[in-house]
User: What shape does this take?
Amino acid sequence: MSKLCVISANVNDDADYEYLTENAVHNTLQPYWKWAEEAGVDVTFTQEYDRQGFGLQLLVFASFECDQDRKDFQVNHLNQFPHKKMHNSGQKYYFE
Assistant: This one.
């Protein structure tokens, strides 16, 4: 199994912001799920939190059955990983 960190960002640990973080993760991963479906690639995304001083670091990993699928994923998405900062486009939150 091959693993790739797709999001590594400091996030607010206040429960009032949790829904913003979850929405941003969902919006960021949406094009990757679509790519995997179209390419016939089996990918699993897992989310972890790591305590960083007074805050939290969000880590989202993509796990692939084979190393070639991970490489294809990286090439198709121009090695843009990991996303490090949450942004608001006016309509939705996402990680950039």
